[in-house]
Amino acid sequence: MTELFIFFEQIYRILFLLIPVLVSVAMIVWLDRRVWAFVQKRRGPNVVGPFGLFQTLADALKYIFKEIIIPASSNKVIFILAPIVTMTLALIAWAVIPFSETFVLADINVGILYLFAVSSLGVYGIIMGGWASNSKYPFLGAIRSAAQMVSYEVSIGVIIINVLLCVGSLNLSDIVLAQKDLWFVIPLFPMFIIFFISALAETNRPPFDLPEAEAELVAGYQTEYSGMMYAMFWLGEYANILLMCAMGSILFLGGWLSPIDLFPFNVIPAPIWLILKILFLFILFALIKAIVPRYRYDQLMKLGWKIFLPFSLIYVVLTASFLMYFDLLPGN
User: Fold this and answer.
1) Which pLDDT score is estimated for 277?
2) Cβ-based neighbour number of residue 42 at 10 Å
3) Does residue 112 contact residue 268 with C-beta atoms inside 8 Å?
4) What percent of the chain stands above pLDDT 90?
5) What is the mean pLDDT of residues 313-331?
6) Which of 7, 57, 83, 96 stands the most exposed, by the fewest C-beta atoms within 10 Å?
7) pLDDT of amino acid 124
8) Quick check: 40 and 286 in contact, CB under 8 A?
């Protein structure tokens, strides 16, 4: 009986996390469009529901009722599995995100490695979709995405090492608690900027949306998809964007910690602070999409390998040297 109770408790906790994440994904699509409209001096979604809030729901209903077309020459099993893999990986990563000191689904000691591993696997869904479509444009988009994600994961990994040197732990809650006196965005500001730009590339967001460049590849790896299968790619992409914003908030912006502990700010619950920081980073994502033109592919690769990677490695050496010289390494 006790084991059954524990099982249902875990199911409840998973749904308690999963449902708000899915609702948030729907809402940030609306926010994304409103930010673009603000930048371009137009209204954006404003008809379906108050302020256009139900526009995403209307789009979801459209995708649900649209016919799913599977190309005759495609590898049908892999073609169907690709969007499922993409969306599943985007959602399971949220298991280790701590919204407060007590509210985290899986408080594991290697949380940052878990996040890094799951985000690395995300490229498989895109490669599967591009290859299984048996079409030139999706395949080219999948190849681009694989090269792009591998390139920028290297710099993200090196950036994370800077944070781990300052904390001495791979646990995400420990990383947040280590920022009680000083958020890492201040001493590691150059790494925060590189992390943010690398997150844009990792999630295929403009100006690095080359895997689905409309002018060249129609819709890239999503070209042959329709209906709910297309929507699953779309939901997975936005869930990944939110995940990268959450990682940025935890690694550099103090996670659930309040910026100041004075009244009335200390009455705001800890999870709200993390959500506000995630929203702040997402608005920056949306602004960049509306403002910055798309890079060429050679510029994308040059930025990742010739600028970000060497600079990140140099900063790791400087961070480690500073901590050793002043005897600030954790555990000393």
Assistant:
1) 92
2) 9
3) no
4) 14
5) 84
6) 7
7) 85
8) no
Tokens of 125: 């869904």
Q: What average pLDDT does range 56-72 have in this prediction?
A: 84
What is the rounded distance in angstroms from the CA atom of residue 297 to the CA atom of residue 317?
30
Provide the 8-state DSSP code for 262.
S
Q: pLDDT at position 332, please? A: 57
Query: Are the C-beta atoms of 130 and 138 separated by less than 8 Å?
Result: yes
Q: Which of 276, 269, 270, 243 is nearest to 257 (CA)?
A: 270
Q: Which residues touch 231 (CB under 8 Å, ≥6 apart)?
A: 60, 63, 64
Please compute the mean of the pLDDT values over residues 226-239 and round it to a whole number: 85
Residue of 237, 224, 216, 223 whose CA lies nearest to 297: 216
pTM, two decimal places? 0.89
Q: Is there a contact between 130 and 143 (Cβ–Cβ < 8 Å)? A: yes
Whether 274 contacts 255, CB under 8 Å: yes
List the structure tokens of 150.
Answer: 């591998």
pLDDT for the residue 262: 47
Across 12-21, 132-141, 192-201, least confident range = 12-21
Structure tokens at 16: 């308690």
C-alpha separations of 74 from 143, 157, 276 in Å: 17, 35, 43
Unique residue bearing structure tokens 């009335």: 264
Q: Where are the domains of the chain?
A: 66-325
User: How far apart are the C-alpha atoms of 321 and 329, rounded to whole Å?
Assistant: 10
Alpha-carbon distance of 242 to 247, in angstroms, equals 9
Give me the residue label for tokens 């696997």: 121
Indicate the residue type of 128. Answer: M
Q: Specify the amino acid at residue 158.
A: V
Phi, psi (rounded to 5 degrees) for 5 = -65, -45
